[in-house]
Amino acid sequence: MDKEVSVYIRRNNKLSFSARKFRILLDGIEILNLSNGECSKFYVTAGLHKISVAIGKKICDTTTFKAHPGDDINLVCQAVGNGAKIMPTNIDVSFPVDSKFSNTPSKSIFTFIIIFLALIILFWGITITLKVNFLFIPT
Fold it and tell me: CB–CB of 97/30 below 8 Å?
């Protein structure tokens, strides 16, 4: 039986295509989907493999890697231009996968923006109401 090799893949946190999941295909078969900022781990047998990243039905980029028994393969993918790119990296991307810390994008900035916009709309509405009431005060 062939030895399994650990493959870690990280999707860099980018604004472009942030709402779309990246489809990851190994040797032409879809194996997982990655959200913005997400990491994942999967196993392959030793040997040469082809890995692709797709957005929707469009395969944006493909690369090959050779898996040796006992090695860990690190890959990174990210949005570029009007598509995505996948590439091997020397950086260990396994930390977020095997830890209790989340590597998903922080929701706090989005929450802050939504609350900020709601307050602007609220104060704008109060200002308009006061101006209208002031104009129609009976004399």
Answer: no
| Interval 98-137: pLDDT, tens | 444 444 445 567 777 888 888 888 887 777 666 666 666 6
Angstrom distance (rounded) from CA 115 to CA 132:
26
pLDDT digit string, tens, across residues 20-69: 899 999 999 999 999 888 999 999 999 999 999 999 999 999 999 999 98
How far is 27 from 127, CA to CA, in rounded Å?
61
Containing 120, the helix (H) or strand (E) segment is: helix 108-135
Report the predicted TM-score, pTM, of the whole model to 2 decimal places: 0.64
The label of the residue with tokens 């830890």 reads: 99
DSSP state of 46: S
Strands (E), the chain: 4-11, 22-26, 29-34, 39-45, 47-55, 58-67, 72-80, 83-88
